[in-house]
Amino acid sequence: MHQYLSVAPVASLIFVITVITTLLTFSNESWYGKLMLHPYSVYRGRNVYTLLTSGLIHKDWMHMFFNMFSYFFFAFQLELTIGHWQFGVLYILSMILSDLPSVIKHKDDFWYNSLGASGAISAVIFSSILYHPLDKMMILPIPFAIPAIIFGVLYLVYCNYASKYSRDNINHDAHLFGALSGIGITVLLNVHVISTFIEQIRMAI
């Protein structure tokens, strides 16, 4: 862990805070009501802080593992690539931007709540893919390494399926808007990443 702290301090801090906050919420369920995103309230200017705090908690162990597993594979390398403050801006801003469509969509639904770091992590994944689309990674149960760009596509397919058929408080809609936020913010930080991405894909074809 010391190695990660020295080379990617922002990603490390976010990882630790998210895991600790989630575990604390597991042991005290009353925190869910305080930290979850409640679009009805946020749209009316109340509990706006939940745009951030909802990204620090998860519904259960599987939800946390899936998100933190994805974060682990992409976040630390991305911070090394784009810089410390740039990574912090990308993560925090995309966490907010990915939730705003849900606030608008559910502004009149008093009973709707959502939680999870999925939007920000989608941003991290797709920002990383812009820089390293052909990096290989092993994903169980697939018995061979796949390019990062393929993982990104599979990630969105899963999120789209979950958004349509799941009945939980996980904000699956945030995945798509998180991915778009990640791409947009990355391009704003470094417009040349587009030409680099295209060139890597072109050479692989």
Structure overview:
The protein is mostly helical and 205 residues long. The chain has 11 helices and 2 strands, in the order H-H-H-H-H-H-H-H-E-E-H-H-H. The protein has a two-stranded antiparallel ribbon. A hairpin with an 8-residue loop joins strand 1 and strand 2. Helix 7 packs across helix 8 and helix 8 packs across helix 10. The chain starts with a helix and ends with a helix. The mean pLDDT is 89.
Please give a handful of descriptors for the protein shown:
two-stranded antiparallel sheet, 11 helices
Question: Quick recap of the structure?
Answer:
Helices cover 71% and strands 2% of the residues. With 205 residues, the protein is mainly α. It is globular, with a radius of gyration of 17 Å.
Describe the protein's topology.
Elements: H1 2-7, H2 9-27, H3 30-35, H4 39-43, H5 50-53, H6 61-82, H7 84-105, H8 118-131, E1 136-137, E2 146-147, H9 148-165, H10 173-189, H11 193-204
Antiparallel strand pairs: 1-2
Helix pairs in contact: 2-6, 6-7, 6-8, 7-8, 7-10, 8-9, 8-10
